[in-house]
Specification:
Helix content: 25-40%
CATH architecture of the largest domain: 3-Layer(aba) Sandwich
CATH superfamily of the largest domain: HAD superfamily/HAD-like
Low-confidence stretches: 1-7
CATH class of the largest domain: Alpha Beta
Number of domains: 2
Radius of gyration: 18 Å
Distance between the termini: 19 Å
Order of helices and strands: HEHEHEEEHEEHHEEHEEHEEHEH
Largest sheet: 6 strands, mixed
Structural class: alpha/beta
Strand order of the largest sheet: 8-7-6-9-11-10
Shape: globular
């Protein structure tokens, strides 16, 4: 009997934006139904997202995921069912100086920062106002970098090349992990944080996780590290080229309900 025949359960670890959802917050009903059937069969579903706690909460409730969620790009593991924080990695205090350098680097770059419970907006732009998630857009507006420990910094610019230049000039790689979450949005978390590492932490919290078949799904550069920690990496066909190149299998887009094919595997 081979390993696949021995497996009785699987764990799908899914990105949200561009994978489960499209157009901001939309999820096709057939995806929700397929996820429900998948979990009723004894399988597990974990969300794995750059979203904050508040930004992921509604999606969790809509799809009723039954395993702890990976949030803030891997900096937090949170169990929505028990309402318990299971893991948190904050940014090095030097992030305050980095944020100040970014604010001075280019006035067009929007800057938002997050603690576990609160999102703050230090500077906005038209792209952020139109395209950022509601929870990020509706953060507390402030002129002062919060003194409390931060978990994530979210930047946006209509010019990706400016974000690339900013990364080279403002962000010390030894302290921070900085990556594009999409073409125009950029995330900064602790250097020790990634979605792939968070998956391994999550597995240590799930009983008998070694017996699970692990399926990852994501569409952004921040999702690439998932591949190293799963048995199968699924990528929507609308993903960026470098993500598509790493896919084990390519699925239809989120707008087409591509995750149905993952839940029905």
């Amino acid at each position: 009997m081979n390993r696949t025949e021995q497996l009785k359960r699987s764990l799908v670890i899914s990105d949200i934006d561009g994978t489960l959802t499209y157009g901001g917050e939309l999820i096709r009903e057939e995806v929700i139904d397929a996820a429900g059937t998948y979990m009723k069969q004894g399988n597990l579903l974990a969300l794995c997202t750059g979203r904050t706690l508040s930004g992921a909460r509604e999606i969790h409730h809509r799809i009723a995921s039954n395993a702890p969620s990976i949030l803030f790009g891997g900096a937090v593991i949170y169990d929505f069912l028990s309402r318990k924080l299971l893991f948190k990695e904050v940014l090095d205090p030097a992030i305050g100086q980095v944020i100040q350098q970014i604010l001075e680097f280019d006035s067009e770059i929007s800057v938002a920062v997050s603690t576990l419970e609160t999102n703050y907006v230090l500077r906005t732009n038209s792209l952020f106002t139109k395209k950022a998630l509601k929870g990020d857009r509706n953060g507390v507006v402030t002129d002062t970098i919060p003194a409390e420990p931060l978990i994530k910094v979210l930047l946006s610019s209509s010019r990706p090349e400016v974000l690339e230049q900013m990364k080279r000039q403002c962000i010390p790689p030894g302290l921070f992990h900085a990556e594009f979450a999409s073409r125009h949005f950029f995330e900064i978390v602790s250097a020790s944080v990634s979605k792939g590492k968070a998956i391994r932490r999550l597995l240590s919290l799930i009983p008998d996780s070694s017996e699970l078949h692990l399926i990852g799904a994501g569409d952004a550069p921040t999702d690439l590290s998932m591949k190293e920690s799963v048995d199968l990496f699924c990528v929507p066909r609308t993903a960026r080229e470098e993500v598509l190149a790493s896919a084990d299998t390519i699925i239809p887009s989120a707008e087409e309900g591509g995750m149905v094919t993952v839940f029905q595997r």
